[in-house]
Specification:
Elements lengths: L4 E8 L8 E8 L2 E6 L9 E4 L4 E4 L1 E3 L7 H4 L11 E5 L15 H12 L3 H7 L7 H9 L6 E3 L2 E2 H9 L1 H4 L6 H17 L3 E6 L18 H11 L3 E6 L5 H15 L3 E4 L9 H14 L4 E5 L4 E5 L12 H4 L6 H9 L1 H9 L5 H7 L6 E2 L12 H8 L3 H14 L3 E6 L7 H8 L3 E3 L16 H12 L8 H15 L16 E4 L5 E2 L3 E3 L8 E3 L2 E2 L1 E6 L2 E5 L2 E2 L14
Helix pairs in contact: 5-7, 7-8, 8-9, 15-16, 18-19
């Protein structure tokens, strides 16, 4: 194959876990054509000089919620800013297909509550040029993207499509209901879905407090759907509170009956700081018995970002703040600087105990820094003690910095010990996968789609509070491990004949940007976007889609239908 692009002199981290090595890599169309030293380069072929740069496979993000965004834009932000070249949609059992016209409001309300996508954004943005799941895939397939995307069949949409209001209100499915859900799930896999997703999490509910339709779905319902799939995996989120042993046994029985692998969200909770180890022990036992189960983990704390411009902060529910919350940010900040209003807000309280624990735990609120591993003494509480101040007064001031656009960090999960040692154990376990970035969701207060860059900067290069990870291990986790877990064996490695998805990275300068609020969603909706410096180029299907952080205009990504050999 004649090359169309040559990357010369880079240090290849090839996705296999092998040590880095120096070589050229030639691309031909959308494939890797050759890898070797001093490759012959025909006259006129574009050359990217990569001496001193890492060359990696494109990263695969297996946990995103771009289900809506991908219907109205070709740019999959923030994931495409962080070396991601393939993203999997349709996680946590929520999505928009299949869907009858009369059920649209229910799915919109569910996505608004579960994934923090405002109803007005979805109502204005979704084109609804589909009804069945195959129709939805056709709609996605009609648009080019700045990366490849793939989809899963969401359980909540199936339930509502088949059962209507009965499904939304979590009534037990009849035998006929189950058979139809199973048929539609298999139809989705046949049309190109890479899996089936469901949620059993109590926190997943509409803004009105209605639980997700799949909460507590009967084992027989899950088993019959799983058994019908014929391909793909089962993606599950569960609280494991039922009690844990019964829920674990229930899910592993479903996996046995379905004959499909299962992945589930694995996180460290403040309320049960060691429970994740119990789950990992069960994962190891299951795999030893031939039951394919992986825990999906995050390489940094999962939490909230606080700020006056964001959707969450410690003073969110207080009347003194609510009176000005509707104002444009500059006017809002001016009002918040008023001494009388400030005194009133600080004198009020967050009434709801659960919200108070979430929003006003000042021992667990920090300035947002690129390493996401702040020491205890950096918290609002400890800083206030040293300065002889009230923590709320200090927190108020911290958020007023940067013209009122400062961002604070409130880790909720994976930070019970005040460090990332637990995460290191999760990430290095043989039966875990890296995911849970939630790109496209929680757009007003979370921006974890930047996690791939954080893994490389913090865990490989910069961590000072504990052990680091080899770059070859980190790249393998971000690329080949995730690609193969979802059945895409045509990518994830730098190898001749495989798909030409690559990153060229200036590792010395690689760094995260401060998240910024943009008001570019439909209806002027806001979302946090976090960029990075250090990606010299991201290449999708042989075309350079981003160069030095800037779009090239190339949209060489597309919908991936089905698994790849």
């Amino acid at each position: 194959m004649e090359p169309t692009l040559v990357i010369r002199g880079g240090t290849l981290v090839d996705g296999t876990g092998a040590p880095p090595y120096d070589a050229d890599i030639a691309l031909s169309g959308d494939r890797i054509a050759a890898i070797g030293r001093n490759l012959s380069i025909p006259r006129g072929v574009e050359v990217i000089e990569a001496k001193g740069r890492l060359v990696t496979p494109g990263f695969v993000d297996i946990h995103t919620h771009y289900d809506a965004q991908a219907t109205w834009t070709s740019k999959i932000l923030s994931s495409s800013l962080h070396g991601v070249t393939t993203a999997l949609l349709g996680n946590c059992g929520v999505g928009f297909a299949p869907c009858r016209p009369e059920h649209r409001d229910m799915l919109v309300a569910l996505m608004e509550g579960v994934e923090d996508l405002p109803e007005v954004v979805l109502t204005e943005g979704l084109p609804w040029n589909w009804e069945s799941f195959p129709d939805y895939l056709d709609a996605l397939d009609s648009r080019p993207y700045d990366m490849d995307i793939a989809a899963q069949v969401p359980h909540a949409a199936l339930r509502v499509h088949v059962m209507g209001r009965r499904g939304f209100e979590r009534e037990p499915a009849t035998e006929a209901d189950r058979a139809e859900m199973a048929r539609l799930a298999r139809e989705g896999i046949a049309a190109g879905a890479l899996g089936f997703s469901t949620s059993r999490a109590i926190a997943h509910k509409t803004l009105a407090g209605e639980p997700t339709p799949t909460l507590g779905a009967a084992e027989i319902e899950l088993a019959e759907i799983g058994r019908a799939l014929g391909g793909g995996w089962l993606q599950v989120i569960s609280d494991f509170d039922d009690p844990a042993e019964e829920e674990w046994e229930r899910l592993t029985r479903v996996v046995r009956l379905a004959g499909r692998p299962m992945t589930f969200s694995l996180l460290q909770r403040e309320s049960r700081p060691d429970f994740w180890r119990w789950l990992l022990d069960r994962v190891s036992e299951a795999n030893a018995e031939g039951i394919r189960v992986t825990g999906q983990v995050m390489g940094r704390p999962v939490g909230l970002m606080f700020g006056w411009e964001l959707s969450q902060h410690p003073f969110l529910t207080r009347a003194g703040y609510r009176e000005v919350a509707h104002l444009p940010i500059d006017q809002r900040v001016a009002a918040l600087r008023d001494p009388a209003r400030r005194a009133r807000i600080l004198a009020e309280q967050t009434e709801d105990p659960a919200l108070r624990s979430r929003l006003n735990n000042y021992a667990r609120i920090y300035r947002l820094t690129p390493d996401y591993e702040p020491p205890p003494e950096a918290s609002v509480l400890e800083t206030a003690r040293r300065e002889g101040r009230d923590p709320e007064d200090l927190c108020y001031d911290w958020m007023l910095e940067e013209d009122g656009r400062a961002i604070l960090n409130r880790p909720l999960l994976n930070y019970a010990d005040g460090n990332l040692d637990a995460i290191r154990e999760m990430v290095t376990h043989p039966h875990t996968l890296l995911g849970l970035g939630d790109g496209g969701a929680h757009v007003g207060y979370i921006c974890d789609a930047s996690a791939p860059t954080h893994l490389l900067t913090h865990w490989v290069r910069d961590r000072a509070r504990g052990g680091r990870l080899p770059v070859e291990f980190a790249v393998k986790r971000l690329s080949a491990d995730n690609a193969h877990a979802i059945g895409l064996r045509d990518r994830g490695f730098l190898k001749s004949g495989l798909k030409a998805d690559l990153n060229i990275i200036d590792f010395e300068t690689l760094s995260l940007h401060r998240p910024e609020m943009r008001y570019d969603l439909p209806a002027g909706g806001k979302r946090l976007v976090q960029g990075a410096t250090g990606y010299d180029a991201t290449i999708v299907s042989g075309a350079v889609t981003r160069r030095h952080g800037e779009e090239t205009g190339a949209l060489s990504g597309k919908l991936v239908r089905g698994t790849r050999a």
